[in-house]
Amino acid sequence: MRSFAVILFYSTVVLAGPWVASIELPYGYVTGIGTGEDMVWAIDSITMSIYGFDSDYPYSLLETLSVEGASSPVGLAWADGSLYYAQSGTAILHAMTTEGDYLGYWDFSAYGIQEISGVAWNHDDMYTTPCFLLADPASHKIWSVWPPGEFTEVYSVIDLPEDLVFHDIGCGGQAGDYATWLACESPDPHYRMQLWNPSGLANHIYSDPPGQVSGAAQHESEPEFFVWLSVPSALSIYLYYYGLGIGDISSQQPATDLVISENPVIELVVISGTGFGENARISIYDLTGRELLHTPFEGSFAWSGCNREGSPLSPGCYIVRVSGDNGKVSSARLVLVE
Hints:
This protein is mainly β and 338 residues long. It folds into two domains: 232 residues, TolB, C-terminal domain (Neuraminidase, 6 Propeller), CATH 2.120.10; 78 residues, Immunoglobulin-like, CATH 2.60.40.10. Helices cover 4% and strands 47% of the residues. The chain is built from one helix and 27 strands. A four-stranded antiparallel beta sheet has the order 1-20-19-18. Strand 15 and strand 16 form a beta hairpin. The chain is globular and about 60 Å long. It starts with a helix and ends with a strand.
């Protein structure tokens, strides 16, 4: 019975579009998402609760906390065992532990921040500057604030267009220092999730589920080319894939120029494509980014659902990627069923 549930889940994923997982939210209105402690955290401004879900399938609800301090919470970020969120319409940031203890608040209005709509943690690693990022829709800026508990270092790091309407934010991981995903309002679903950095607009995701996006968060674990977003009208959080972390990020959007003979894959699928040059390669990855197969690609490849050792893979969702010596890179999702 468990195998059937997994197959049905992933089949739904492919038919729906570029998202690879979802968490149903039969609660109220999610205004912020954060990730940490191998969990996906969602703050709900109607139920005044913070929900913690397991970041791995089946995404079970593990924690429910009552929001403290803020009467209309927006944005959410996790850092070092604490959750940070803002009071809507103000420059006030609140914090509480993941055990539910309230830690206090900080008012950034004296630094030039007018209103906080989103909060993100710019992860501390070799590629990024450790800091919190605050989205200010009034000044149309993303601000860097540091250190936690003091927040005495406040800088504007990204300037945004004045006509851009945005809410929660999430950091872009391997996309670069200060790279920030924005949950934006737009009539065009291609621009409801936008990636910005200090140089400008760097990428965007086609938001397939109907409705506007309210929350955004970078997937916590490897690989980093996954992002969570919330769609209040669908009462769901979606996990989106936006690349395999190899080459120019602008080329990592799921491609339409690979021809897939059948999907879901039952026994055999033929993957075809042109324009990759003479020394192209094809790879199959699982959703953790682990490479399962790597072989030359000469315009088409027949895959029987096995890894490089010839062992059958478990039913589920996989990523196929074709790269050419001319720089062309294309990727697509495959669903393997039993």
